Amino acid sequence: MARDGGKTGKTGKTAAGLGFARERALYRDGAAPVAGADEAGRGPLAGPVVAAAVILDPSRLPRGLDDSKKLTRERREALFEEICATAEVSVSLAPPARIDRDNIRQASLWALASAVRGLPRVPALVFVDGNDPPPVACPLEMVIGGDALIASIAAASIVAKVTRDRLMTGLGAVFPAYGFERHMGYSTPEHGLALRAHGPCPHHRRSFAPVRAQQLLLFAEAEIVAAE
């Protein structure tokens, strides 16, 4: 069952980062544990979608939790280590093959559901960023912009983002021609030039229009060469 938390102007943010008020209220009502879930990497042309689910320890909350996009890379890395050391964390990846087979929306929802199911305890409620509920059996509350509002979602967004960035940096070392470690697979001028020069690698999402167009171009060029 999913509830839509909608938009709110109350960020619950202090100098120490996002507060834990929404989660504490649920704990006081006997709903435990409470998790947050988010994903990273829906838009890139290459690499997986990475989803994370996090159950924060109310007695050991990392300071400075916020939307991962608002944090510096160094701060994200530091918070990632602290979250993994103090919270219950589950991560799931939807690879390009699943994205191409199922479409990006379905692959993202699958990754979110898989991350929630991978938690060591079944949550009494999961706060999920957005308004598209993943298929899980436990209660959900959807929160639009939740990574900037709910501490548990912010923690999940940080874990997902750092995990994906590390994966893409690793792919950059294996496929240096594409510069994955710089643009993380997003559609940038550098990435476009590399695609035109080298075509897609095994980690590109071939169902995405820019990659598909490049495949068609390479196929047409190969036909011309064969005809000659």
Per CATH, the class of the largest domain reads Alpha Beta
* Secondary structure: helix percent: 40-55%
Strand content: 15-25%
Q: Mind summarizing the main beta sheet?
A: 6 strands, mixed
- The residue-averaged pLDDT reads 90
Q: Could you say what the CATH topology of the largest domain is called?
A: Nucleotidyltransferase, domain 5
CATH architecture of the largest domain: 2-Layer Sandwich
How many domains? The number is 2
Number of strands: 8
EC number: 3.1.26.4
InterPro entries: RNase_HII, RNase_HII/HIII, RNase_HII/HIII_dom, RNaseH-like_sf, RNaseH_sf
Protein name: Ribonuclease HII
Organism: Aquabacter spiritensis
Task: Summarize it.
The protein is an alpha/beta fold.
SSE topology sketch:
Elements lengths: L1 E3 L8 E2 L2 E2 L2 H8 L5 E7 L8 E7 L17 H14 L1 E7 L1 H7 L1 H14 L7 E5 L10 E4 L7 H24 L5 H4 L5 H10 L10 H19 L1
Helix pairs in contact: 2-5, 3-4
